[in-house]
Design goal:
The chain is an alpha+beta fold. Helices cover 35% and strands 27% of the residues. The protein has an 11-stranded mixed beta sheet, sandwiched between helices. Helix 5 packs across helix 6 (172-181). The longest helix has 15 residues, at 100-114. The radius of gyration is 19 Å and the shape is globular. 38% of the residues are buried.
Amino acid sequence: MTESLEEYLAAAGEFLRSRPTENTVLVTIVETLRERGLTAFGEAAPLFGWWLSASGSVAGAFLQTPPKGVLLTAVPPRAAELLAESWPRERALSGVAAPEDVAGAFASAWRRRTGTSSRLWLRERLYRLGTLVPPRPAPAGRPRVADPTDRDLLVRWFTAFEREIGEVAGTAARRVDDRLAYGGCTLWERDGEPVSMAGLTRPAAGMVRVAPVHTPVVCRRRGYAGAVTAAVCRMALDAGAHDVLLFADLANPTSNGVYQRLGFEPVGEQVALLFGPASASATHATAPPV
């Protein structure tokens, strides 16, 4: 483990970049930290780490940007258990996101160590774009890359998105400023008024990820989300992206259907578990649909 991004990249950077699809979230977070500094996601220092196989090669990695939980790649369940057992005692941990068997192994070891229970917060599917199929007929309007004059609107929409999915509030302005710095947010406009948005992560290892996608409640069910998602996918492909990815909440069949009709193909799933007191209900609950 280390708090040094440079040390992390020297040890695990090649492993992360060699699997940009499976490791998409870690890869894009690392890229943001490289560009914006270690306080890009909050004032507390991130924590990084990697897992070595018996041959001495890197076979897994994790990172945590407080106050969020730990993000963990596919590793043997025993490696996840050892990470939970060796987690720094002074460092609070709200949850874990990983492939289901890995997350379960980590959560079980965390409960044995701390007495805290876990509950399912989100189960999501990772998609990769195959052949882009724009919606036909397309809804009225056109895409436009957001600029600094859209900042206030984007902060409101990012805040609304955070509330809908149960994310930690208060990060919207920071995230918007980051996206505006590289043209990473596109609006769908109708009659000159924004009605939907889709973001793109920074390109990294030939990969970009669509996130977030948000349409205000009053503008939903008109095809805007599909149209703006298709628009940012086309922009990414035209800019040279090899892989265009996105996550969809499996509790929301509507969004999964939209993305599949656009040409996205499933490549894997992961879960996010939240930790709480041992007396908390063990009932699984998903986040509100996105």
